[in-house]
Write a structure and sequence with these properties.
Blueprint: E1 26-28, E2 35-37, H1 38-43, H2 59-66, E3 71-74, H3 92-103, E4 109-116, E5 119-126, H4 137-153, E6 157-163, H5 171-190, E7 195-203, H6 205-208, E8 217-220, H7 231-238, H8 249-254, E9 260-261, H9 267-283
Helix pairs in contact: 4-5
Length: 284
């Protein structure tokens, strides 16, 4: 019987941070159902080589993609607390412990600073693997501190959103982060520093209703799900049928909610162009 049992541990690669992409040698695309080797997928910026479907990746994958060489991760000591003694299927503290162990992450967002084409940049990137990328008090605090860091270093700020919305286990503490992050972004604007918002699949709930849509430039990856409430809730509320794909980035750009859609392979060069543009604007 051992001949027919797949030994998954034999083909896993040990990494510090768990990838959101599948483990193994092969990848079956969720969009076109075609098979590709993981080597092909990685060399294609974690996109399907057949149909260009953008596979979900983690925060540190984006850091590796964006920054020139090395980057420094910031605020790694922040950990969510269970102020409400929340219990659903299991205590919130137990859920946090399991997520720390499973993902290698301390929460649903990571912040790093480094250089892009020789220019300083602070980036906050969310991870969907950590409780669905939900926004809790640590997410809000890391964004606030990242903005302070951008002001201190006089450099632009980028948030890469990927979230299911506010974290229910923190209740009002989670909802307060919407106002907190918006207020901090006002400080960044008053300091004359640009804020770029990249929305990836999915960006929903309180994240969409706060910092994700407040960028000086709002852009997204192709076919990313972006919205506040789900289609079923919206349909029941307005009592009308909804257009096909109305919550995708492609639909949103046609209706003026986004500035542009960016293919992941072009992301670094587009950010370089934007940094040059804003540098010239500030110097003038």
């Amino acid at each position: 019987m051992g001949w027919f049992k797949r030994l998954k541990d034999g083909i896993q690669t040990a990494t510090k941070y768990k990838k959101e992409t599948p483990d193994g040698l092969w990848y079956k695309c969720k969009q076109c159902n075609e098979l590709s080797t993981m080597k092909e997928v990685r060399s294609n910026f974690f996109k399907c080589p057949k149909c260009d479907y953008h596979i979900r990746i983690g925060s540190h994958d984006y850091f590796d993609l964006i920054f020139d060489d090395n980057f420094e991760e910031l605020f790694t000591d922040l950990i969510s607390q269970d102020h409400l003694n929340f219990v659903d299927l299991k205590p919130y503290t137990k859920r946090l412990e399991e997520e720390h162990k499973k993902t290698g992450l301390m929460d649903a967002i990571s912040v790093a600073e480094g250089q892009l084409d020789g220019r300083d940049l602070v980036v906050a990137a969310m991870d969907f693997t950590f409780i669905g990328g939900s926004m809790g008090s640590v997410v809000g605090e890391k964004i606030a501190r990242a903005i302070d860091r951008s002001i201190e270093q006089r450099c632009p700020f980028l948030i890469i959103s990927k979230s299911g919305g506010a974290r229910m286990m923190e209740s009002a503490y989670s909802l307060m982060q919407m106002g907190k992050t918006a207020a901090k972004l006002t400080q960044l604007s008053r300091a004359g520093l640009p804020y770029f918002s990249l929305m990836t699949d999915p960006t929903t709930g309180g994240v969409t209703a706060s910092f994700a849509m407040l960028g000086d430039l709002n852009f997204a990856e192709p076919n990313a799900l972006i919205g506040f409430a789900g289609p079923r809730v919206i349909k029941e509320t307005i009592k009308r049928d909804l257009p096909d794909g109305f919550q995708t980035s492609d639909f949103l750009i046609e209706h003026g909610f986004l500035d542009f859609i960016i293919n992941r392979k072009d992301l670094k060069q587009r950010l370089i162009d934007l940094l040059m543009l804003f540098d010239k604007k500030r110097s003038n």
